[in-house]
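sanity check this:
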Amino acid sequence: MESPLEQPATLLNAQLSFLDTRLVLIHLPLDIYPLFVRPILQLILHNTRQNADGTPHEPKRPWLFWHPFVHISITTNACTVVCPEHEAETLFMPLLAGLNSKLRSLVSISSEQYAAVLISGEGLDAGQRVLDLTSPLALAGISIFFITSYYADFILVPFSARRTVIRALEDQGFVFESDDSHGDAGHMTNSGHLSPQITKFAFDLFPTSPAPTPTTVAELQTQTFAMLQRHDITPSVDEHIELVTCAGVKDSTAIAVANNNAKDNLQLGLAKCLTSHPPPAFLAITLTNLESMSLTLDTRLLTYFHNDGEDLLVGKDGPEQVAITLDLEQLPLESTGIVCGVASRLRDHMAHRTSEVFTMSYLSTTRTGNVIVYRDELSDAMDALKGARD
């Protein structure tokens, strides 16, 4: 019998940071995405963050972004924008207000604010950490979005559930310390000691629901795939879309900094990708004030960057990846446990396949869940996800 939760080794090395930002999620169907290219470009290219004296807040390094977190993803059915609430109000709301009622009804901007949690740490196995870091939150009934970048993973959680998130992680041995006076920013490190409340927090924090509350990852996996089956959600793959995950080069030479060569060429490449017709089949952009730009993109988009991204994009020649997509259009935005349930199913299946480490990343959008795997692991991963329905 599986114990309710055991502290995984990956959690001991994980470092969690609550970023100093409050985010909203914007959903744009691909049919009207071209109408919103301009505010998306403004969000990426124009620094609107100001210091107390009204001057632009310039990043410490030219490759850093001026907001703590911004994410744009384009997949085969929609575009998702994650940005600070005030940027949504300034850049997107005026355009939305000018559309007719039919077009306005196709766009959604979350009324809920979200907090971004950065996950970092040495020696974290890519596939296992998705499971280990989402399971405590899933078992606490917290809805999350999971985004993997070149450098790190990010979990987006409802800001209203922030204290519940911290408590769930404290039950896993983490200790929270605030980094500012208002408490939005903070970090958590693992003390190595589990809370004695760990076996029952899922019951203590939430009222009893008609459906049994899962208390183990195995139960959560079963519940997740039962829900997917009820809604006839099956994994799909477009094998013609070959992906690569890479990052903008950090060029700190005096000449490069003075001329902004790398920064300008990266921004030009991004602008070409975002304005391409038809829109990109797959493009995920993550921008932070801690690292250079991270991209997961259809390899055909590399041609939009100077010299196909040579000397601009680190890792562009990395292993070929493929996205397995779950269309979650029919599920509420606040659905819980999907990332954890999918990750646990893959871990269980792939562990029996080989002794090699299974590598996966995950991209949540407002309407899809995307499991990104290496090409040579695609067949086994699809067997795992389809087999869960049999």
Residues 69 and 288 are 5 Å apart (CA to CA).
